């Protein structure tokens, strides 16, 4: 019952009007410089890691050549500290001439030639967070036009050095200005993160109308504490946040730090699984040139990506928070499928968690199970049959769950109601179906 109510609510929220630029019908995927490379501008002493056109070309090469692009990781995104400290004679932003000698338009061409998209960073305020020129209200139109002229595909608009009044004016104005350029540009708004992320200060209906994604909460850092803190904040407020997401409009818990220094293998799987359940944008911030094979396998896990990219675009929820330290997350997927994540908050040893699909609100029937990280199918289970999952400390077990009974018989109520599934499905995306099932 609880599940049905949730899905119904979300089915309706998906009919509200998303930002009408046709972009990001599933969560955007790619690479973003900030968490790993920050504001390193010391190209004299640290040429491989400084914010420069060669860093973004390197990452574009890796995305195109190492199998990322085919999996959907197509955005190469610049963050802060790319620009010159001065605007040009016409009042336009310009890149730092020493670090981006070819200019942004050339970099965009390089990225586009590899079948990728280029994102850039701005800040609605007098300065960016790093102290570079900001986009004050009077500069919104010229900056939108400059980005479009360069061939930019996505803009992250930060909120340092602005106040609530300017943000209320500025974020919607940028939506209009981007639209007026005629170039489809994905729009990431940091607005809610500057207003505490919750109503009444934040209006999620409005955000869905003006932004493709939005940062609700603080920046991620390279540590498990940071990941856990973010997951807890998003989960504690899921009743507010979850209905806000849908095709073209996503909550953004910030970058994937898998492949950096802070997470163990289990914790890396946890971040991937929970970001997939949350329908979160998947922007890696790591060094794709030196990524180890373990991190690569997690980030390139096809099951986790397919769950993240499910065409219904319904964000998942935490169903249960057990006293034992096991949290169970659930996300409804297309074709009557769903994803489950068993997440352990424990720090002692693998925990044997016993439950059944019935206890997790599944309707009567027999279900096929596929373990996403083991990459293999498990024996079918009946809804009432108890099973045990062994969950590592700070780790997850993630399942793709699929009814074995004929689909019509188990189709969730919401798909039969006023809204038919075909209204949600994008024509060019096939729902996930592991070969094994
Ligand atoms: C601009 O907005 C209109 C109407 O909302 C929409 O049809 C059009 O696709 C948008 N164009 C761009 C480039 O975003
Ligand atoms: C917000 O900042 C602008 C300058 O960017 C200023 O003109 C305005 O008075 C400020 N508003 C408030 C309420 O502080
Ligand atoms: C939130 O934004 C929507 C859409 O712009 C608007 O209709 C609604 O009145 C706003 N809600 C509040 C509480 O301001």
UniProtKB/TrEMBL annotation:
<dbReference type="InterPro" id="IPR013785">
    <property type="entry name" value="Aldolase_TIM"/>
</dbReference>
<dbReference type="InterPro" id="IPR017853">
    <property type="entry name" value="GH"/>
</dbReference>
<dbReference type="InterPro" id="IPR002241">
    <property type="entry name" value="Glyco_hydro_27"/>
</dbReference>
<dbReference type="Pfam" id="PF16499">
    <property type="entry name" value="Melibiase_2"/>
</dbReference>
<dbReference type="GO" id="GO:0004557">
    <property type="term" value="F:alpha-galactosidase activity"/>
</dbReference>
<keyword id="KW-1015">Disulfide bond</keyword>
<dbReference type="Pfam" id="PF17450">
    <property type="entry name" value="Melibiase_2_C"/>
</dbReference>
<dbReference type="GO" id="GO:0005764">
    <property type="term" value="C:lysosome"/>
</dbReference>
<dbReference type="GO" id="GO:0019377">
    <property type="term" value="P:glycolipid catabolic process"/>
</dbReference>
<protein>
    <recommendedName>
        <fullName>Alpha-galactosidase</fullName>
        <ecNumber>3.2.1.-</ecNumber>
    </recommendedName>
</protein>
<dbReference type="GO" id="GO:0016020">
    <property type="term" value="C:membrane"/>
</dbReference>
<dbReference type="InterPro" id="IPR000111">
    <property type="entry name" value="Glyco_hydro_27/36_CS"/>
</dbReference>
<feature type="domain" description="Alpha galactosidase A C-terminal">
    <location>
        <begin position="313"/>
        <end position="395"/>
    </location>
</feature>
<keyword id="KW-0443">Lipid metabolism</keyword>
<dbReference type="GO" id="GO:0016139">
    <property type="term" value="P:glycoside catabolic process"/>
</dbReference>
<dbReference type="GO" id="GO:0009311">
    <property type="term" value="P:oligosaccharide metabolic process"/>
</dbReference>
<feature type="signal peptide">
    <location>
        <begin position="1"/>
        <end position="18"/>
    </location>
</feature>
<comment type="subunit">
    <text>Homodimer.</text>
</comment>
<keyword id="KW-0732">Signal</keyword>
<keyword id="KW-0378">Hydrolase</keyword>
<keyword id="KW-0458">Lysosome</keyword>
<comment type="similarity">
    <text>Belongs to the glycosyl hydrolase 27 family.</text>
</comment>
<keyword id="KW-0325">Glycoprotein</keyword>
<dbReference type="InterPro" id="IPR013780">
    <property type="entry name" value="Glyco_hydro_b"/>
</dbReference>
<keyword id="KW-0326">Glycosidase</keyword>
<dbReference type="InterPro" id="IPR035373">
    <property type="entry name" value="Melibiase/NAGA_C"/>
</dbReference>
């Amino acid at each position: 019952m609880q599940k049905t109510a949730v899905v119904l609510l979300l089915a309706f929220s998906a009919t509200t009007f998303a930002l009408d630029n046709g972009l990001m019908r599933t969560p955007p995927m790619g690479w973003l410089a900030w968490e790993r490379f920050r504001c390193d501008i010391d190209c004299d002493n640290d040429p491989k890691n400084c914010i420069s056109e060669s860093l973004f070309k390197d990452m574009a090469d890796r995305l195109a050549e190492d199998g990322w692009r085919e999996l959907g990781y197509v955005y190469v995104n610049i963050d802060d500290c790319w620009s010159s400290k001065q605007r040009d004679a016409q009042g336009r932003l310009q890149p730092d001439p020493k670090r981006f000698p070819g200019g942004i338009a050339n970099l965009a061409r390089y990225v586009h030639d590899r079948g990728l998209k280029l994102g850039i960073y701005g800040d609605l305020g007098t300065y960016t967070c790093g102290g570079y020129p900001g986009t004050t209200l009077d500069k919104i139109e010229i900056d939108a036009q400059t980005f479009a002229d360069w061939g930019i595909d996505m803009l992250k608009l930060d909120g340092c050095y602005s106040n609530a009044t300017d943000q209320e004016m500025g974020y919607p104005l940028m939506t209009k200005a981007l639209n007026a350029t005629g170039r489809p540009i994905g729009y990431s708004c940091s607005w809610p993160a500057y207003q505490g992320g919750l109503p009444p200060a934040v209006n999620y209906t409005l955000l869905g109308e003006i932004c493709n994604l939005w940062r609700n909460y603080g920046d991620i850092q390279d540590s498990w504490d940071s990941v856990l803190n973010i997951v807890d904040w998003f989960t504690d407020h899921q009743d507010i946040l979850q209905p806000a997401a849908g095709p073209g409009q996503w909550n953004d818990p910030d970058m994937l730090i898998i492949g950096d220094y802070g997470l163990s293998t289990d914790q890396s799987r946890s971040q991937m699984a929970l970001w997939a359940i949350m329908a979160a944008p998947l922007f890696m911030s790591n060094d794709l040139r030196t990524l180890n094979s373990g991190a690569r396998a997690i980030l390139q896990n096809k099951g986790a990506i397919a769950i993240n990219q499910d065409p219904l675009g319904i964000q998942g929820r935490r169903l249960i928070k057990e006293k034992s330290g096991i949290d169970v997350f659930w996300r409804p997927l297309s074709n009557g499928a769903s994803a489950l994540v068993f997440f352990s908050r424990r720090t002692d040893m693998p925990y044997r968690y016993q439950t059944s699909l019935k206890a997790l609100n599944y309707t009567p029937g027999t279900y096929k199970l596929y373990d996403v990280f083991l990459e293999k199918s498990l024996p079918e289970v009946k809804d009432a049959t108890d099973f045990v999952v062994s969950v590592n400390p700070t780790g997850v077990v993630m399942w793709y769950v699929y009814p074995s009974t004929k689909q019509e018989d188990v189709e969730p109520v919401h798909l039969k109601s006023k809204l038919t599934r075909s209204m949600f499905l994008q024509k060019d995306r096939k729902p996930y179906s592991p070969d094994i099932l």
